[in-house]
Amino acid sequence: MTRPIGSCESAASGGESCSVGRGKHTNPGPPAPSDDAVALGVPQSRTRGSERLSGLAPALIVTAAFDPLRDEGEEYAKALQDAGTPTTLRRFPGFIHAFISAAGVSPTCRDALVEIAGATRAMFAAAARPQTRLPQPEAADRIEHMAS
User: Fold this and answer.
1) Do 71 and 3 share a structural domain?
2) pTM as predicted
3) Does residue 46 register a pLDDT over 80?
4) Domain identity same for 64 and 127
5) In terms of residue numbers, what domain contains 20?
6) How buried is residue 27: exposed, middle or buried, by Cβ count under 10 Å (0-12/13-18/19+)?
7) Rounded Cα–Cα distance for residues 41 and 65 (Å)
8) Bigger pLDDT: 12 vs 127
9) Domain match, 79 and 136 both
């Protein structure tokens, strides 16, 4: 399928006008990286849509050793931690990206899913209690997960 010149697809590089449907609008292009993201050293390609990393809800970030998104997930976890957002990072060694979908046939994947569910449950329970700090893994545990 070909697109007419002037369509939004041809204007995707940003800053150009395009007309689709009932009217004409301007595509402003990708948002500029926020000052927080630049200060944290997060590459510009990773900052799209993230204006602030501090003051966010606690995060549980799960990666797998053979995950094509592992490095990006762990960079994001580090940026959140550096910004002061409570963050737990857990890398599962020996697993691929979609290991959770194998929980029905792999006892190891099922155990990982149970661990993730328990950590999520604990985070929700702690957040529901007023003035409660969320449990954080020991610094050595965080480093071990990021380095494995």
Assistant:
1) no
2) 0.55
3) no
4) yes
5) 1-30
6) middle
7) 24
8) 127
9) yes
Q: Which helix (H) or strand (E) holds 95?
A: strand 87-96
Of 28 and 60, more confident: 60
**Helices 70-82 and 139-147: angle between axes, nearest 10 degrees:** 150
In sequence order, what are the residues at sequence separation of 6 or more whose Cβ sits closer than 8 angstroms to the Cβ of residue 142? Answer: 81, 88, 89
Residues 6+ apart with CB under 8 A from 104: 110
Residue 126 has pLDDT above 90, yes or no: no
C-alpha span between 78 and 85 (Å, rounded): 10
Q: How many CB atoms lie within 10 A of CB 65?
A: 13
Separation CA 61–CA 46 (nearest Å): 16
CATH number at residue 49: 3.40.50.1820
**Total domain count, the chain:** 2
pLDDT tens for each residue of 60-115: 999 999 999 999 999 999 999 998 889 999 999 999 999 999 999 999 999 999 99
| 53 neighbors 36 (Cβ within 8 angstroms) | yes
Torsion of CA 73, 74, 77, 83, to 10 degrees: -120
